[in-house]
Amino acid sequence: MSPTNLASVPDEEVPTAGPLPPDGLKAAGRVLWSSVMDGWEIDPWERTLLLQACRCVDRLDDLAEAAAASTAVVTNAKGDRRRTPPSSRHASKASC
Fold first, then answer.
1. What is the pTM of this model?
2. Could you read off the pLDDT of 64-73 as tens digits, one per residue?
3. Residue at 96 is within a domain
């Protein structure tokens, strides 16, 4: 799978040629699910791992969105004002 921003894939463009993604997955998770299921035949235990990976992709997109929107600032022990650690850590990374 080529590296793309899965969060930018509109819902209507998510491929569904193979077995349908499980309920509850968002656009990025459905893209990952479909790209794997359309390309390979996988065992049941691999399907379980794939589902967890799809949920992680969705969660990472949620966290990236929240971090981008975050303006939370804290004052550290030295009196310096800094963005909250989870926001600054995640915002500094474009991908996993």
1. 0.61
2. 888 777 777 8
3. no
